Amino acid sequence: VLLGMALAVYRRWGMEVPRLVSNSMDLYAIVAVALIIVSGFLLEGVKITSRSVYLRMVQEYADLSTPEEERALEAYWVAKFGLISPAVKGPVEEGLLRMGEELHEMSCAGCHSRPRWAFLGYGVARAIKPVALPLDRAGAAEGLWWVHVLACLVALAFLPFSKFFHLLTAPLCLLCNAVMERGRSSPANLTTKRMIELDACTHCGTCTVRCSAAPVVEVMPNSDVLPSEKIASLKVLASGKELSRRRLEELLEGIYLCTNCYRCTVVCPVGIDLQDLWFEAREALFRRGVVEVSVLSPLSFFRGLMRAEVEEGYEVPLAGAKEAIAARFQPAEEPIQVPTDAELQGRLDLSADARTFHVCFSCQTCSNACPVVANYDDPEGALGLLPHQIMRACALGLRELAFRAEMLWRCLTCYQCQELCPQGVRVADVLYELKTLVVESMKGKEDEVRPLRRL
Ligand code: SF4
Ligand code: SF4
Ligand code: SF4
Ligand code: SF4
Questions:
Q1: Which of 69, 144, 172, 258 sits at a 20 to 30 Å CA gap from 378?
Q2: How far is CA 106 from CA 48, 99, 101, 160, in A?
Q3: Whose CA is nearest to atom 4 of ligand 1?
Q4: Domains 164-328 and 342-448 are alike in CATH topology
Q5: Which residue, judged by its Cα, is nearest atom 8 of ligand 1?
């Protein structure tokens, strides 16, 4: 435990882990554990040396009938158990020690093994040997007992409000993840799971270290961009407390700047589905009419506007988003002419399944997960477009651009992209169908077909 505590302190305040935030709850956790452990070891060490503690035990448990027996047992405890006694001075005769050992076996051995087994407590006893008698006279054992017990009781009472609560909620969270699934479990159960997840966070900061949006805080001082801080703010919000307008705006900004890249969920050691939390928080705030029009996040803009196509009942947030955008931005006086390339303007004509590319919000999870992309130092140079770019090309109707992507022919159809896509885009199926369309479009143009480059 001591080693773990030392590592925790070193990681938080010695290692300078990028963007790792330490708050008062982390400090409390370390101080509480340190107080319990250190007071425990000190108490053990003081009790080993304390003559008053020894005499109380003798009075209560030992059946000694003569002063010689009392002297023998005490001498044995001084020699073998680290007791410090002014009544035992100088070398002790062998006979007296043997008698002490017999008495110890009769009265004490049932409860007391050799103190060396408590190696830290015994080490403390050896270290305080020169001051053991004054400490005993000052009642150090009783004082430390109170400190230790109070530290344990306070930590126990504060447990539900501290990050130690994860000791109970983290296993529950992992269990829920194993048996529950979005789309199959009831919404009420999913809400309960999310509340458990909020309590399971240990504020370890692993998600923040890996967050793809986190570098933003270097130019935008909003800690709610970091997933470990965002979840802490969500916890406050979920507990029913009102957040100040400024805190709410910061939280909203943090939520909308998230690219939903999935990294935080993958690395969270207690299995919190963070991506799902951001997703739900976004929806909940959207439905409550709290609208953020930041276009930095494709989700905040693109998903909000496209949602009407994929789900019923989204009119209110959709209208809110449109109104907020209209209120903030002036429409252009003249329609903007986007340069077009006639060759790229054909519409894709894929099956209903593959048309899911419409709900892609460019989080790049598919490209991050793709083993083919990972194989290249310069994937865009080697593959033309990456999977998420192909989805966007499809959504924009850039048929020829999508058709020419080398990625189509390098795809291993491993389906990792499709399995991990938070929007349910059938990425691998889209690539597969694109390939079919390319082959169909090349009928009669066999001379133009070029051989694949070697990998
Ligand atoms: S999903 Fe959002 S919060 Fe999580 S790592 Fe990606 S950008 Fe960061
Ligand atoms: S990785 Fe998980 S437990 Fe750690 S701070 Fe992030 S959400 Fe909390
Ligand atoms: S297809 Fe899915 S995983 Fe890929 S960028 Fe779009 S939403 Fe993200
Ligand atoms: S199916 Fe293709 S695009 Fe998707 S992860 Fe596998 S190789 Fe990459």
A1: 258
A2: 20, 11, 9, 46
A3: 264
A4: yes
A5: 211
3-class state of residue 417 by DSSP: helix
CB count, 10 Å around CB of 153?
Answer: 10
Cβ contacts of 26 within 8 Å, gap of 6 or more = 12, 163, 203
Tell whether ligand 2 has an atom less than 6 A from the beta carbon of residue 231: yes
CA 328 to chain centre: 36
Q: Say which CATH architecture domain 164-328 belongs to.
A: Orthogonal Bundle (1.10)
Ligand 4 mutation target, pool 262, 389, 408, 413, most atoms within 8 A of CB: 413
- Are the C-beta atoms of 372 and 383 separated by less than 8 Å? yes
Considering every ligand atom, which ligand is closest to the CA of 257?
Answer: 1
> What dihedral do alpha carbons 8, 12, 18, 22 form, nearest 10°?
120
Using CB atoms within 10 A of its CB, is residue 448 exposed (0-12), middle (13-18) or buried (19+)?
exposed
Ligand 2 pocket, residue 203 CB under 6 Å? yes
Of 3.20.20.140, 3.40.50.720, 3.40.30.10, 1.10.1060.10, the CATH number of 342-448 is: 1.10.1060.10
State how far the Cα of 24 lies from the Cα of 30, in Å rounded to an integer: 10
Pairwise CA distance, residues 367 & 423, whole Å: 14
The answer to whether 144 touches 42, Cβ cutoff 8 Å, is yes
Tens digit of each residue's pLDDT, the chain (455 residues): 888 888 988 888 888 888 888 888 889 989 999 999 999 999 999 999 999 999 999 998 888 889 899 999 999 999 989 999 988 887 788 899 999 999 999 888 888 888 878 888 899 999 999 999 999 999 999 999 999 999 999 999 988 888 889 999 999 999 998 888 877 888 889 999 999 999 999 999 999 998 988 888 888 888 999 999 999 999 998 888 888 878 887 888 888 788 777 889 999 999 999 988 987 887 777 666 666 655 444 444 445 555 555 455 556 666 666 677 677 777 777 766 654 555 544 566 667 677 788 788 777 889 988 999 999 989 999 999 999 999 988 877 788 888 889 999 999 999 999 998 888 899 999 999 899 888 888 887 766 666 555 44
Whose structure tokens read 């207690």? Answer: 270
Q: Kindly list the domain boundaries of the chain, sorted by start residue.
A: 2-159, 164-328, 342-448
CA distance 210 to 193: 24
State if residue 431 touches ligand 4 by the CB under 6 angstroms criterion. Answer: yes
